[in-house]
Structure formats: structure tokens, C-alpha cells
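User: Hello, can you help with two protein structures?

Assistant: Certainly.
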Amino acid sequence: MRTRFRGITVREGLLLEGPAGWGEFSPFLDYDAPVAAPWLLAAREAAYEPWPEAVRDTVPVNVTVPATGPGRAHRIVTDGGCRTAKVKVAEPGQSLGDDLARVEAVRDALGPGGRVRVDANGGWDVEAAVEAVRALDRAAGGLEYVEQPCASVEDLAAVRRAVDVPVAADESIRRAEDPYRVRDLGAADVARAGELGRDRRRRRPGRRAAGAALRLRAGHRPAPHRRPRRRPPAAGARRPAGAPPGPRPGGAGAAGRGPGATRGLGAAAGRGRGARVSAPGASDATQLARAVLTRLLDAGVEHLVLCPGSRSAPLAFAAYDAERAGRLRLHTRVDERTAAFLALGLAKGSHRPVPVLCTSGTAAASFHPAVLEAAHAGVPLVALTADRPASLRGTGANQTTEQVGLYAGAAATLDVAAVADLDALVVHEDAPTHLNVQLAEPLVPDALGWSPPTPSPTLDPRERPDRAEKEEEIALGPRTVVVAGDDAGPAARRLAERAGWPLLAEPSSGSRTGENAIRTYRLLLGTELGEQVQRVVVLGHPTLSRPVTRLLARDDVEVVSVRARGRWPRRPHPVAREVGPEVRLVPTGPDDPAWLAQWRERDADVVRRLDALVDEQGLGPHAVAREVGLALAPGDQLVVGASNPVRDLDLVGPAHPVGERRKVLANRGLAGIDGTISTAIGVALTRPGAQTYALLGDVTFLHDAGALVLGPDEPRPDLAVVVVNDDGGSIFAGLEQGAADYAPAFERLFGTPHGTDLAALCAATRTPHWRVESLPELRQALASPNGGVEVVEARVGRADRRELDARVRALVE
């Protein structure tokens, strides 16, 4: 056999030719006569008995993507023309990061409406399968199903109980009785049956064609339903109309994970909720804490970050027990601001809500910067604050302040004093949530401990509104550019390519791939080419550059805003028209075929001169940013800090081939330097097996140095933090404050040199530190990270930053 099948390269078989055509008899060698007999009957049936009349003219098929690189995977799907793809994963010798990159490339090729399946051929154990399926489900924007994640039927059943993605059985079904065993153990939602002969128990033919799909029911388990996503699930992956939304027997409850409350990840708790939240002898605080954790788990929570505190102890114990039960991953931090940004990173990387828990008082106030960033970036962060009973507010009681409305304008507060108050809980999928829980003493659970409650089958979550978007038209003709801001996604790239327009994509847009991406757009917007722009189609949240801001504010430019799915982003500039994400291009006027070519030609010329200038500088800020961008492999992740690093990367970062996108994230909601290391750690934790990098300046690094304080039991993901250390705030040198008129006060007010020994700081937190003195040393450090969290420091000069920025701008003059 040229293609290995289930580990087999040689197989015997027999072909039968009869009046009806050819039949094949090729049982596996381990089959005895009674098992092989139905295979022979099936072969004779195919050769001698006429086929029934056709009931359809066409049969939908999927394209199969082998365990190849993301670039080839993208081409296979594009060339295949199918709307469904089955992607091979769990290949020996490859990592989960390889699988994630491949699935992301397939999703990009299919677009939001295609269906993605993955096939592991039994390559995982239960623990690895649960982790991988959840990560792949996020990367795919919703999997239709996962095929044969583990080898045994018992393990399939265990995985099916632990994940929301439907499970398909393939290799587990080799004999005629196997489908019944799969059904009886509740091991699969879909059974792929080969030629099993006639089904003697039902007196009707078995499946003839290998690969036929048979939907199974396990007892009274309802048909699977999809949990709403920040990105839309694949078409066809939603719960069928009329299917009851009950939980899986014996597993994590599905309540609230299907279509749920408005804007919520299925978290609106109806009056009919029947979850068991009390235990004999448990205190009121313990029962309330367990109810809170149950509702959050039902809302799709997989990670929770906590800071130690006394008032929050009931919630902490509940989270600890949920982790022991395998329903939650718990992360502990000693600083509330650091913890909140860790939760932010986990939420950005996983597209799921992530609570961060603290005690009462100033601890809750420390969450505020992360809550603000989440509000402006549309991240599902849950601020879970413990509080004293309401009767103690305003009395001067210890560690008691008014926490209701603490994050006013960013997150509304649900003040919870009893379990019934949780009926109003909605955990948003594109905004932060504040859950303030009043806890009275005693604050420790009963001695018998607690098993996380299992939701009742009588749960009745409210239906989520239909998010189907109607197709809207954008006319071709005017000289148009596509601006892709933060979190714009691949849709911006696809629109630019379909229309033949230049793509001006920020590094964290998720769109910076393909041949339409203009790397030096910030410089070109200040030339006569930029002055010719007549229309801008803007996606995402562009905040990075003043040239783009000026372009969007021009009176002679029409601005068309494409809203994200499910929300209307408000723009700080005039908008002529707002359209939905489904766009149809209409040729209504003469188009300029040379428009894109002019941008490409000018960009290529400026890139050549810019690269020469960067090379001339040696180990400078732009060179560091360029090398980090080049070091990223498909599937790797990069978190970029605010200030100069993200702008330097914007100028020199490459546009990768379509299907080989590297995931670049940044906190661009408010573009602050807060919590960047913590965010990067959170992002890295959501993608085990992949390498994550962070690129940031020294002030940003020092601002969140506490993120390196990790307890011995806390996971240390593969994260290389690259610090461009110029001993101060060089961003201000290129702004108005850096002009010669303000030189006497500049260093004290804006330059702020600190002289900190980063190596000593890293040593204090047991964090490996490497200082590079040249570009070859930097390339070597980036090419061979040592695993875990490590810091790579590149010392660069700051005195000539203003002059360097001027030389860069002069490249287009």
C-alpha cells in the first residue's frame, strides 16, 4: 500500500467480478471466520445483486488534509473547492502547535461558513485528547466533530463526556457488533461504518460505502449542540432545531453551553435551573460559592485565576475542588493587577470567559486596568470579587468599601447575596462582567469536602438570538484601501484580495498575510499615493498610527465601517456607512487596475531602503523587531507591547504567506503598557506545544515584572520575552515632547532612565535571562528557546531615536 492505513502497509484482498460490477473482500488478518463472513457476503452482494435506484444526483464530500504544513494545507483546501475539510492531527513526531497551525490555515481557506473536522486516528490518550480537542475547537472557530481521538471505545466515551465537540468513531468500528458497543457506552455522536455486511439483528443491509456516517443516540442524550463563540461556529455545527438542551450523563454539564442569553456565552440562568449546590452541613457562604462556580462552569469557563484572601476563601475552595474534579484549570498569583492581566491573556487566547478572583477592598480596585482593557477590546474577562455582607457597607468595617459599580462604564455589577440572585447572571462573550459576591462567616467549607455539583437535566437556558448576517454591498470603482486594525481577522485580507485593493494591516489585526499587504503603509500615506485615496474600508480597531488616524478623518475620503460579528464598533471619526461582515462587491463604476500595482511597487522600493537602514543600525530597535517577526514559525504566537515595539514591528514585520499566519496579539483596547507579561503568559497557556514570544520595551517589562513571580505549582509555558532595553521611555523622543525646545526637562519628565539590572531582577524570580550584544546572538537566542518562561534582553541606544525616526520618514521624501 502506498499510503499507510492504521499502521498497515501490506494487506491481502480478493476482487469479485459479477453482473452487477466489482466486489471487494479484504477483511483484516485478525478476523476469524464468523467475523469475516459478513465481509464476503457484502462483496458478493456488490458483485451480483443490482444496486437500488438512485435517490440523489450528487453526494457531498469533504477534502482531506494530511498532516502537512499550514501553507500546503491552505492550498489543498483552496484547490479542492469543498466546503468541508477533514484535517489529520496527532501525527507522530508533530506537536499540538503544528496541528493548531494547520487547522487555522484550513479555517482561513474555507472562510467562516465552511465546516472543519479533525481526525486523530486514535493518536491521543484521554488527557491529551481533552486538551487538544478544546484547543483545536477554538482554532477552528468550531469543529463539526473530532474523529477517533483515542484508540479504545472506553477512552472515546471518557473524552465525549469531557468536551463539547461531537465525537466520531472510526477505527473503533471494525466488526458488526462494534456500533452497538459504541452506542451502549455512549462513546460517539457519529459512527463511521465500513462494509459490515447485513445487519442480521435488524434484517436490513448494513452500510455499503466506507465512510458512511451514522448518527447515534446514547440513551436519552440529546443531539449535540454548539456553544456560542466569539468567532462563529462552522455551518451545520449548531444544535438542530428542537433538540433538547440537556446535559451529558455523567459528564460536565452542557447546560448554558448551547444557545444562551443575549450576548452571553450561554450563561443566563433561568428560573428552572436545578443544579445541586448545597450539601448537608455546608455554610451559607460555602453553598453560595459553589453555586457561583457551577454557573461559571456552565458558561464555558475552563480557566480561573485567583489571588489569596480571606473573604474570598469559599470561592477559592470551590475552585480548588472543581480543579481536582477535572472541570477547571486553576492559576494562582500574589498580585491582583498581574492576576487580572493573566486572565485577560487567557481569555484573548481561548476566546472563552476567564474569571479572576480576589478578596474585598483595594484588591478589587487592582483589577480595574484589566477590566478597562477588556471593555475596550471586547474580551470576556470576569471580575469575581468577594465582598462583606451589604449590612457592613458604610460602617467603617475592615476591608469594606462600595464595590458595586466599581468598574462603572466598563462592566456592570451583579451584586450576589443569595443563590437566587444568580438567575440574573449573564457572562458576556465580547465584554467584561463584574460578579460581586457577598460572603458571611464562616468562610471555610465543611470537613467532608465537596464534589462539584452536576447540573440537572431540567435546565432551560434561554435561546440566543440569531446572528445570521445579511449580505451587504460595497461598490468597486473608487480608489480604495482596506484598513485592518486590531482583531480585524482574515476577513480583511479576503476582502482586499477579492477587490484588488491595498491592505493596510496592523500587526495584531490577524490580516497581515498575502500579496496585498503593504508593509510600509504608514510612510506611504504621507505621499502623493496616500493623497489619492478616495475611500477606506475599515475593519477591527485601528489605533496604531497617526497617518491612519489622519486618513480616516479626511473630509474627502469616504469611510465604510465593517462591524465585527454581533457588535457595532463605534469609530472616533466620521463614518459614511456601516455594513455587516458579509460583503458582496458590486462593479458600479470604472476601476483603476493600476491602483494596487502602484502601492505594491512603491512599497517594495521603500522596503528595500528601509531594510538597508535597519541593517546599518546593527542591534537597534527596528532590527530586534524584524528578527522577532522572522523567527516566528507557523502556529507560533507573539504578544507585542505598546509604545515603540508594536510600531517598529508594524514597519519591519513581514507579511507571511496566506495560510501560514502567525498569531500576533496586543492589548490595543486602551493601548496601555499594563500587564503585558501577564497577558503573554495567559496567551501562551492557551496553546500548549506552541512557542510564544513577547516583544516589549524595558519600561513595559518593569511595569509588569511581578508577572515573573510564579509559584512552584504554577505552569510555566514556552514563552520567550524579548526586551528592547534603552533605559527609559524612547517613545516620547519621537513625539512633540522630544523637540529640542524641551530638552532640559525631557529626561526627568519623559525619558525616565532607571538603570535597572534586568539580569538580577530575573535571577530573583528564578527566570532564565540572556543578554545579546549582536544580531547573530539575537538570532541564535530566538532560534533555540530553552523552554519555559525566559527573558532575552537586547540593549539598544536611546539618544539618537528621534534622529532615527526622522531618517525613516525621509525614505519616502
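That covers the first. Now for the second protein you mentioned:
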Amino acid sequence: MLQTNIKTKSESSVPILKREGFGTKGRVVTVKANSFEVTKISKYDEFLKYILEIKSINVDKDIEADIKRERSDYGKSIRRKVLKELGLKKENWFQNVVIAYDGGTTLFTTDRLGFDKEIEIKPVVKENITLKNLQNLNGEPTQYSVQISRTDTVIKFAQLEKYISGEEFEWDFFSDDALDVLNALIHQRAAEKYIKSGKSSIYKGSKAKITGGIELWSGWFSTIRPGQESLFVNVNPTFTTFYQPLKLDEFLLQYLHPKYQKLPDEFNEYQLKDINEILKGLLVRPQHLESVQTERRIKKLLPATKVVHFEYKPEADSDETFPLEKYFNDKYQRRETKLFVEIMSEEGTHIAWPIEFCQITEGQRYKNKKLTGKQRSEIIAAAKMKPYTHEKETIKGAHEILQLQKNPTGVGMEVASNLAEIDAHVLESTTVEFAENVKIPANNGKWNLKNVKFVKSGEMLAFWQVVVFEEKGKRISEKDVYNFIEKLITQCKTQGMNVTKDIPLIQYVQYRKDDLEEIVKSAYKDAKKSLNRPPQMMLFIIPGDKTFNNNNKLYETIKRVMDTEIGCLSQCISVNSNTKRNFNNLQYCANISMKMNLKLGGVNSILPEKKLRLPSGEDVLLLGADVTHPKDKSGRSICSVVGSLDNRATRFATAYQAQERSGKEEIINIDKMIKEILEDYCNYKKNKKGSIEKTVASLLPPCIIMYRDGVSESQYERVLKWELPKIKEACAEFQAGYRPKIIFAVVGKRHHTRLFPANPKEADKNGNCLVGTVVDRKITHPTLNDFYLQSHCANQGMARPSHYTILYDDIKLTTDEFQCLSNALCYNFQRTTSSVSIPSPIYYAHLTCARARMYLNDDMKLPKVHSNLKKYPMYFM
């Protein structure tokens, strides 16, 4: 792979790594992708670009904020309605012109609009539009000011054709106006009949009820993507969670079930915080105002005691007001509840409605909200789709919903009716090695622990204690716990771990969600006292019922306290107190033994040495990096970098930091984390037998390969431009003259490309492509060096390949070499007996981010892992 400067518009942009070839290793097969080739783009050569500004005149403040937000689905739906009304009012402006509009602030047209035809200067026109079916709080139809002005931009499809031919490329191609035009065009027809959510068309006629007051709607994602020598329409069935359109009191009862059969008059602080996370920003329609068709957003839930000073004005044009609670009690004889919701309003104004008078508006996504374990299980079951069914639904979405074969764009676009067929290749599988030179073939990406021992046991586990959290009325008997621990110890010993025969002391504690931190600390102190020394590990048995997030909260508290304040290894066991399913499952015990061995410093399995060795024979440091963002705007982003310590990539050092959420993916202080990893790497090498006297310079790896997660295509340039120099600077600062050769590759999972075997004989037993399938032709990027790799077997449903893009390489690996290395690393994730969908460094980085997020305090400070855990680098497993 060569770093090549191809023709770009910007001389200051980051050098581009151009594809120099394709992978050839493995067996050649034919696959189909959920992409439809665009055989003709448009009968028009160019589009003009107008700026469309829509401002509210008499719209309530919270809805006005939606209109201003470019990416708000609700705001887009309103802006589409406004433009439609404008087209009816000013029909002559839009005659003989094709419009491409996606609900944002940009309007694309095939010709000048009517008001702009004969004037050389660029006019700016304004019109007022009324939406009669959407009213404000006073019952008045909402009004909007629309301003349209033409820009100097002319979008030429000839330039787009140069990009897809590979003749030219620039980084901002990923946000190219020509692609925006085409994407707006293919979505316009669907937007008239379906709910639009980003690039998805959601069909509300197909719903599955989910526990907790939500429902699952099906739909189709679609987007225009560049391929090699052509454009493709990527179509993928998708599922999205929505709020059920219930009355608010009914929703709360479902959300809180089974804890409450009837709503209380008020909730405690913990419960109120949890509920308000779900309700904040939710659109509701007031049912007591029969003549008013308005929608307002919820600010928060309030008990009656918090609205005693609220006044209510029944008539908008009246000066008369009444005490809020008294008004509703007298007029409507309220009996059911004393709960209200405060509505977002102008500063200094307080509006609240009783919850039973609030109807949740249909079609609101349940996004950025925590799902319980039960909800996740129900969603997975409802969305599960066999590959054959997935393929049929893909074709249905293209033909019936998007109507791609019926000129949906109005510009003469022609799209193939069949899925794209591509030449692919299947990389050979590997063997997985255990102790005593036992080698197990990974058939279709899977193996098991039967009759094998771990490569290396961690330190002998002799001092540990079991803590059982019991919920009121749901005690797990000591006999059941004892029998489970006995099975677990037997399994650990069977796998070759050094574990004492003695059953550890079992301690019961009462689960109280308001005092979890002190309970964990007290349990540790009791263990330390009974053992007459600090325990090596604490095993916590926690309730497995996940209907009210109790399990998640308890787990997070245990990890935060044990990792950052106490400095002791911990292992959690989730058990349903009724079924005790995990207690009777030997496979579960085997899975737990893998985690425990890793935490104690052991190695479970290794790959053949040649699989992870560079052709040059040089040592390589494998890095994984990830950034995760908070669900709310006020939180902080968590970044992590992990690095391999040994040549078999079985142990990894971790570093993490918090940074302000900015909507950007760059890891701001990646240089500091790289230096932490290099220090841990050198210390590990020094401590190896015979290396204690070696200099730092002699210990450092000559090669570094960075697998970077969480980067969208539009941010490739800025992430590479920031992070690659920082990595190089960190190396030079750590050791003068240290200039390792580097590969920087991005791995993405959040894409919609799916692969299907063209021949059923080339499928696995579930109907997916074979494990190890690589696609690097036809649907991949016309310039960049990218490929799709399906490295895992999907136990149920459709397998999703990972998308690899190599942005920088001065190690000079061939395409085959990098693809084979990446595939091998998917077999090296130490806590499973199957290959995974992403290379293990990225998986470990993701786990580190998830664990670090649990450490965040209420004041958003991120504590460090306790120094006691420094000698256990895999503590986070």
C-alpha cells in the first residue's frame, strides 16, 4: 500500500492513501450486497442551490427550537409541510422545475425558480405561510416566515462522475452537494407517505409492542453511496423504537411495571430522575383543550406539592387565572393521580398539565434512552430476520417503498432492479491453541473448551469472597449459592486455573438502591476482616431482573467502587432469583472462568505465531482506540486507547480520558494516552526474563498498527490530521529518535451494507456468508483502500460485516497481509470461544470506554483506576 498524492482541490489536505490492488488470498466466491447500481444518474447535468430559511411567527418556544435545529426529525417534518404549502401558494415559482429537498435549510433545483428567472441579480423573496392543522397553545394556526435566496453554487454531476471513476478525490467528497441532491431526491416520495427518521423511511403500520410503553416500528434505510465506477443505492431493513401513543399516566404505569400497579402521589428523588430522563422533551397533546390542536414538549414530572404556586389561565385572551391544582380538581373532578408535567415555555412562565390529560404524540422515537435487559431481548427477538428474509425485505423496500425502478427522483435516474453481485474471497480459518500444545480448529469461527486447559493460569486464587445481593422477598438460598460456587471452582480447575479447593465465605447483603456504594464498601471491609488480608477478588451475585434498571445501576456501582476506590478485582454474576438459570449452566461457568483467569493475569488461548507476525518479523504494537459520547448534551465523551503487551496480543494495557462533548471524533489528548501505553509496554518487556537490563530504546516496537473505531467517513480527514501527528509526537517525546512505522486504519460497524451468498451452497447453516468473507470490489470506495470483512458467525439473524479503511501506511503491508492480520485478530478476543466482528484491540478499547463511563461522578470528574490494579491489566474483562 502506497501513500499517494492524487489530484485534489486542496493542497493542504492530508495525503491520500490510494488503493493499489485487491485481496487475492482465499477461495473466490460470489456474493450479493444490499445495493442497487445506478445505471443513469440524471437527465439533467446540473442543479442550482438555494438557501431556505423558515422562521416561526407565532409558534410556541419549544417547537420553535425544533424548527431551528437542522437535524431534528420533527423540525424537518414541519419544514416539509411549510414548503409544500408554499408550493401551493406560489405555484408559478415551481413550474417546470424539479426540486430536491430533505427538510433542511438547502433547496436544490434543476433551474431557476419563477421569481428568479429574468433577473441577473440574485433576488431574496419572503412569504408568510400558515399551517392550519398545527396550532399554538392559544389555539391559533401556526405561522411561518419563509425566505429563499439563490447561492453561487452550481452542482455538476460531471464532477461526481470524476470522483466515482477514481480520477479525482477530495476529503469533503463525503459531504458532497451532488450526493446530497441525489439522496434528497430518492427520499422525497417516501417522505410523503412514511415517517422520516434521518435516512430511514418508517412504516407505522407494522408495530411490535415492547415492555415499558414502547413499540418497535419497521422501515427501510436508504442512501446513495459511491462505488467503483458507479453509484449504488444502499437499502437496508431497519427497526426503530418509538413511544406508544398512550395517555401519559398509562405510559408511566407501563414503564414502571411491575413495581407499581397504581401511580403514587409522588416519587423519591432517584425514581424522579429516572422518569424525567425518559419524559424530557416528549411531545404531548393536551386533551382538556378540545378545540386546541397543539403539541408541546415536557420539561419534567412534578408532584402536586411542586405546583402549589402555579397559576392556570383557561382563556388566552383573559386576565383571569386560577390556582393550578384547584382549577383541574374543581373542573374535572380529578381522582386518579396528583401528578403533573411541566411544559417547556418562555422563561419566567410556568405551564403544567395533569398527566392523565396528556396524550403522547404518535411517531416519536425512543432514542438516547436506556433500555432494560428485557426490552433489549424483546427487540432482538422482534427484529430477528433470517438472511433470506432480510434479502426479500431489502428488495421490497427498493421496489415498493422507494420505488427505485419508477423514476422516483423525477430526473430520469435509472436503477438496476437486482442486488449487486460481487466477486469476493473467503480467508482461511485458523486453529486456536491451548495448553499442552492442544490445537482446536475454529470451524465457522467457533470452538469450545471441552478437554482443553487455558494456555496459562493467572495467579492462584486463594483469598476471595462471595457477596449475594438479595431483593426483598427474593432470597437465593445458601444451598443454591454454595452448589453454584462449587460448580464454578470445578470448572475453573478443569480449565487449568489455580484455585483453592475451599469454598469462599458467602455473605448476604440487602439490596437498597439508595445506598449501593456504602453496601459495596462494607462488603469489602467484611471480606478483608474475615480473610485477615485484602481479598484478591470479590464475586458479586446480583439480581438478574432487569425490568427497572436495578441490575445496571448495581453493576456500575460495584465496578466504580471496586476499580477506582478500593482497588480489588471483581466478578459479577447475574442471576434471576426465580429461575436461577445461570446457576445450572456449565457453559455459563466456563464463560465466567475465562473472565476470571484473564483478570488474574492468565492467558486463555493463543493463535499460531505466524498469524500475528509481520512479514518482516519485526515486533508490532497493536493499538485500539475508541470514543463514546453521552446520551445527553451535558455529559462528557470518553476516549480510550489500548495497546498489546505481548507478541501474541493476549494482554493489553489501557488508558482512558474524558473530554468535552463537541460532536467531533478526535481524541484530543491521544498523545498522553499513547505515552502511557508505551510506558506499560516497556515495563512489561523489562519484567520478562532476560530483559531487565535492556534500554528503553531497544524495547520499543519498530511498528505500530492503530485500529480506530467510531469515525464516520465525513470525519476521516480531521481525525487523521489530528491523531496521526499526535501519535508520532508522543513516540518522539517518549524516546528521542523513536520513529516507528505506522498503519492507521478505521474500522466501522455503524453502516448498512449487508452481504448475502449468491449460491446457497456457499452459505453457513444460518444462511449467512461464510466466516472470513472479504469484499473489496465494486461497492467499495473508488479511491480509498477499504474493504468489508465478515469475520464472525451470527448465531441468529443477519451477520453484519465490518468496514475497514486504511488511511495511512508506511509499514507497507500488502492488501492480503493486512486483511489476513485483521481477520486473525478477530479470533484473539480472550473472553469468547468464537471469532468476533471487529479486531480484539478495538473490542478492548470499547470495553474500556464502557467501564470508564461507569466511573464518572455527578460532577463529571473521571477518577483513575486504583494503583492496586496496575498489575492486572485485564481487570476490565
